Amino acid sequence: MKNTFLYLLLILGAWLQACQKPEDVAPPSKLLPQDKMVSVLVNIHILEAQVDASALPSDSARALFLQQKKELFKRYGVTDSSFRQSYRYYAVHDKDLDDIYKIVIDSLGKREQKLGVSPDAL
């Protein structure tokens, strides 16, 4: 699920970029700042890993993920709509999304190191 989600995000970003030019897309009224976007994405990827590790049937895992994601958004004061619109905006501005994901990947790597988890073990 983790790898599938990342691939889907990359494909979605490429598709959105092909559809519109960055200058054609105005920022949404509730654009999440990059630092908040990073925090939310880090926690979404951690949540995905936890759900993957739960070994639940796929429909139960999906329901758990969606429910936990809803709680995560609530904790950050973010709506699903504002997250999607912000992600779309950053995806169209691919340099912004690249910058965001560099920080996300770095943050997740540091957490793995702190926990003593090797990426190969995943």
UniProtKB/TrEMBL annotation:
Protein name in the entry: DUF4296 domain-containing protein
UniProt-listed InterPro entries: DUF4296
Pfam families the UniProt entry points to: DUF4296
Top-rank lineage group of the source organism: Bacteria
Protein species of origin: Hymenobacter fodinae
Limits of the DUF4296 domain: 28-113
